[in-house]
Amino acid sequence: MRADQLIVNVNVYNSYYKRFELNNVAVLDGRFMYVGPGGPELIQADEVIDARGRYMIPGLIDIHLHIESTMVTPTTFSHGLIRCGVTSIVAEPHEMANVFGLEGVQEMMAASRETTVNMFYAIPSSVPATPMETTGGSIEIEDMDVLLATGEIICLGEIMNYVDVIRDPECKTNQILQHIRRNYPDLVIEGHTPKLLGLDLHRLIYAGVDSDHTHQSIEGLQARISAGMFIEIQEKSMTPEVMEYLIQHDVAQHFCFVTDDVMPDSLIQRGHLDHIVRKAIQMGMRPEDAIYAATSTPASRMKMTDRGSIAPGKVADYVLISNLETLAIDQVYKNGRKAYDDYEPYKQERMTGQFPHHFYNSVQLDKLTAEDFTISLSDPKVRDTANQAEQDSFNCRVMMVKDGSTFVEEHIAEVQASSGELEWEDSGYGQIATFERYGVNGNRAHGLIGGDTIKRGAIATTYSHDNHNLLVVGRNREDMILAANTVISSQGGFCVVEDGKVLSHLELPVGGILTEEPLAVVSHQVKELRAAMLSLGYVHYNPIMSISTHSLAVSPALKITDHGLIDVNAGRVVPLVVE
Question: What is the mean pLDDT of residues 523-538?
């Protein structure tokens, strides 16, 4: 019998028994042909690899992530994933969809077709995330039909607007769910259901949403699994009690591991899905069970019947490991060909022009001036009452940042006023402002910010979820002007300023949210960016994610978009001044 490749003397992971067996493996035409004791006397191969007793596991599969969270292009992301043993992913490009709509999704898919990693796609189901923000694009039902016609879509991306699904039968999200279930009944539907329990949880499952990747508690985990929901465990859910529950109970078929969001420096330093598997093993899970949750169950969830295990007919994606407990990756093979070797140089060449020309010119904003950071009491977003009597001070809503969370609490503080303006620079709080940057309506909004945020200088970014308008936080208007205009000039990115000096500038010219620089370069830039943010007094475990979600109008409790301050729990725009 002929084969392209024969791997001998290897401990092969058997997904069906969740155990390792010393065997030989033959690969033909990019797929596993044989797994068993037979060696060269039975199979003549063009290439014979002596694994010397090492471990062979299937390529890791991550079914819930956002490439844009790593701020790089699909090509660069693939380069980073392969060295982590990740060979297949399901990406949901709702960030790029918010910038460019249907075209944003199509171009992300096009940029993924020649990557080493197989990149399957989820349709963004919530673009825009709310009607209380301006975006560069939207995804409508007819757009979903266009995407599904490509044959490259594997699921409907996370349903985030779960409140409306439950309470408003006629809402856009319910129309989407009904359309998908009626016309594409076999399509997997992903969910986002934080803290939902009881009847509301069951009503959401009844609507077709049968997975959840948000932060899990034991109560929530039990409620979801008992109702038939599939759980996607990301790192923040890997608490000791949750991990103990997964280890002690027979629920292996009902969960998998995912990453969701990984910053570029973390991808370089800690890894990707391999980091999650490694951590699970360190927390007491058997390596065999941790590997199962990153290969077999995610493949099953997404109906990837051709991968996720090492067996005849399956795609020959595999990883050779020298130490099972530490998941030490030696080599990674994709379709039976070596894609990464820990003992060989692994460099990435810089690629440019991977997207259409207008993707590099998406920030349609003129340079800002001091007047743009004046908080005028005549602005209806600041003060919406008909009573415009002169006062010396006003009670104002303040966005209070809290370390350990992307939630932002509301605080009421008295702020002095003069000549029809709030004297915010003398208030003890910073200003947060957002500017619509697509040239759609010129909207802008101003607020106040405090808590574990910066105490000096300013930060500006277009990497502001989910609308990606220009967001500026600062303690004085001069630094805010410099930070904002630096980002505008570079067609997107991050800029940190103190005392009129740029401390860090990360350029993200592709849609204002991605860079074409190699991963190693971006990793260094992000590390420098984080350090600069912390130097201004930011107190947060992830300041980049913290500031990026100040405009995320589906995350509690007080956020800001170009429409104004958003009371997330009430689902409405509220004025800065509390009358």
Answer: 98
